[in-house]
Each structure stands twice: as C-alpha cells, then as structure tokens.
Amino acid sequence: MFNNLKLAAKLNGSFIAVAGLTLILGCLAIFNMWKVKTVATVLSLEKVPAVGLANEVERDSLKTMFQIRGYVFTDETQYLEKGREELSSVKKDIKAAAAHAEKYDLKVLRTNSQIAEEKALAYEGLVNDTVKATESMGKDKDEMNTSAAAYMKACNDFLDGQEKMLDADISSLVGE
C-alpha cells in the first residue's frame, strides 16, 4: 500500500503522524501538569501550613511545661508567669489551627485541635491546682518554721537552765 505512494506523500503522512502524536503527548502533559498544580496548591495552602501550626502548638506546649516545671521545683513566680504566657501562646496556636482546619475543611486537624484545646484547658486547671497547693505548702512551711524556732528556743532555754544548775552543783561541791 505504501509502495505505490510517492515519497512526498509518505513524508507528509509521517509528518502528520508525528505531529499528531506530539499533539496528543502535549495535551497529556498539560493535563498532568494541571493535576500536579492542583496537588501543589493543596500542599502549599493547606497541608504545609497545618504542619507548621501543629509544630507551633507542640513547641509552645513544651515551653509551657518547662516553665511550669521550673515553678514546681523552685516555687519562683517568675517561672509561673512565663509558663502562663506560654500557655496563652498554646491557646492562640490551637485557635489558629482550628481556624485553618475550618477554612480548608481539614477533618483530622479539626479533631486534633479540639482534643488539644481540651487538654490545654485541663492542663491550665492542673497549673491552678498546683499554684494553690504550692501556696498552701508555703503557709505550712512558714508555720513549721515558726514552730521549729519556738521549739529550738525552748530547747536552748532548757539547756541554759541545765548548765546553770550544773554550774551551781559544781560550785556547791567545790565550796564544801
């Protein structure tokens, strides 16, 4: 069949076939690039910011726990104040994550934001309980120190009295 065609017709047919294949491959490449663009857009607008927000929640949570641990170990209010500031940052981060989840309908982030908010509120309650317990222990410690000082005064007074009586006994024995 191709033997009877002239060379020009054969070349034209081959050119049209190659051009058709190129057109089909070009359309296929454009279609795939649109799909990649869609995936890249979802990643850049939804997923990457969600991971960043989750990292902020984690980072501020760790800072909060570090500061509160410092307060528990030292009873210094500067750690408590910094811990409460960090806890405030955690709450802001959680709200930002929840807003991002609502904006882009990210179910996992929405669910985890709700769980994180509940845990942050529970942690805040525990911090408040810790502050009350620490203040109560401080009052008890002050009372114990006052009682210990009174006890030591009584012991020293007793010892002084015993030493005076011993001196008196020794003086009376030496004088005989």
Structure description:
With 176 residues, the chain is mainly alpha-helical. Helices cover 94% and strands 0% of the residues. It contains three helices and no strands. Helix 1 (7-74) runs antiparallel to helix 2. It is rod-shaped. 12% of the residues are buried. The model has no long low-confidence stretch (mean pLDDT 92).
Keyword list:
3 helices, rod-shaped, de novo design (two linked rop proteins), mainly alpha, single chain, 176 residues
Brief rundown of the structure:
The protein is mainly α. The protein is built from three helices and no strands.
Number of strands: 0
Q: Which structural class is indicated by helix and strand composition?
A: mainly alpha
Strand composition percent: under 5%
Mean pLDDT: 92
Distance between the termini: 156 Å
Tally of alpha and pi helices: 3
Please write the CATH class name of the domain at 47-152.
Answer: Mainly Alpha
Helix content: over 70%
CATH fold annotation of the domain at 47-152: de novo design (two linked rop proteins)
CATH architecture assignment name of the domain at 47-152: Up-down Bundle
Gyration radius, in Å: 41 Å
Q: Largest beta sheet, briefly?
A: none
